[in-house]
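Incident log, structure service

09:12 report received: a user says their structure output differs between two submissions of the same chain.
09:20 pulled the input from the user's history:
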Amino acid sequence: MKIYLKTIIVCSIFFSAGCSKLPWKGDDGRSQKGSSNMGDLALQNSENEDVQVDQLYGLHTKQGAQIDSHKEDIQFLESKIDSIGSDVAMIMSLLKDMQQKFDDSGSFSNDSTAVKVVGEMAQLQMKVKLNKDRVFLMVGNLGTPQNNAVFKSQEEKNVPNLFPLSAARSMTDPLHRLKFGALSTYYDQSRAGVKWAVEEQGKSRICVLYQDTDFGQEIYDAVFDQLAAMNMEIIEKATNKPTDTDLTSQITKLRNANCEVIAMGTIVKDTILGYTKARQMGWSDVMFVGQVASYHPVIASQPDGITDGFYAFAQFPSPDKDSCSKNVCDWIDRYEDKFGNSPNIGSAYGYQYMDLTAKALEIAGKDLTVDSFIEALESIKDYKIPFGETVLSFGPDKHLGSNESYLFMVKDGSFVQMDDKNYSY
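09:34 re-ran on a clean worker, output below:
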């Protein structure tokens, strides 16, 4: 069995799988085949079969609601749909209209617009992949709004959605036979952070700063639920828009409430704005605790160590030659030899997600169907991820591999893992 990947870049850090000429047996027994003139990166196992996998790619959010365009993604998509039929002109017209909007403005005035546009983009891409490429499964679809926008169309075509590049609860909750996630959610990480702050750090005045978005609401819910489980309440809350450029009023509000810990429902730009504002105001006796969306090297590498001391609960350490195990160091060397640049945490996500997918395909064996693949994936127990200590297990009633996370803190321009403990709630 060969599993083919494509090597185009997603959001500057993620690898995207593209379609290739890979036959498989559909639910109706007919041979299925996709097409592409792109080069293949193949994983081989003992079975002499080919399986088609794919991934959404394209427009992305960067530090909030700013939308950057990927012209190479548009060009790639154009080359792939040139034979789809009468819908080509419509699809390309819509994509180019979006492209021009991004080129002209570079940003949107509110996050709901951004979510709507990236959702439409995802639906257009998924139409091609489901109706022309006839994909067998999708691995590592990019982003929460993109995945939420295409779940229904994937379900209609009986196409599994595996390990999306999003830690939102909606990726696996509620349980669905076609939806699988690997690592802990924003909700899991935020609850673990609150529990750690109260039980291990002795804090009692817990507050929350969160985006006025679905993402931010998930963090707020986690903080509320964890405190309720401990017979406590949120002391104060403050919200921000992803497009805000100054969080002075929010930080002042939280400081006036004498918060000891601020759980952060923020991503990159707003995390930096909030944390640095507190430090500039001289507010140093408060802990800021984020989740994997704020576990980003841009936050850690701010000038003059201004973000030192920021905490984040994340799923595994980013690959780093300065602190890697022999196996991970060997993987980094192979990666650099093949691609000519150093891997980052996005590379690690892609590698382990495809490794896990390949394992399930090997278990499923010959005469592969969607049902046999799902049964194989649900049979995987105690899979240790290559880049940390997290162990993943699945089952018919368990489609999220793990709820655990690790504790990191910014120190001297990098996120440093604080201990070897797996945190949960």
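09:41 both user submissions now match this output. Likely a transient worker issue. Closing.
09:42 reviewer note: The radius of gyration is 22 Å. The mean pLDDT is 78.
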